[in-house]
Fold this sequence. Notes:
Elements: E1 12-17, H1 23-26, E2 29-30, E3 38-39, E4 60-65, E5 78-82, H2 99-108
Antiparallel strand pairs: 1-4, 1-5, 2-3
Amino acid sequence: xxxxxxxxxxxxxxxxxxPHKDPNVLRYGRPMESVNFVFDFDPxxxxxxLYPKLAEGHVFETLMESGDLLYIPGGSPHAVVNxxxxxxxxxNFLDLKTMPDFARKCNKG
Length: 109
């Protein structure tokens, strides 16, 4: 069970992160140019009758408080629910693996 209130009572976010190479998840969604990944299923309440292979997949879930930091590996489908008003800062990390794709997208403009 996921509690709505954190240790300090500060606003929370709820994250679900799916492994970026899990075929049981990737078969029910697709990457898109404007966003990381679009799910064909509800990542919070998936219908296992319509998407049976999801039951064999993996998902990591966590709650975050104000001041917490979460690293999401590049290409990992994820979903977020804001459980209260809050402000988030996000940034992308470039390394040797992600640099070629980043350079291709920059050159398209």
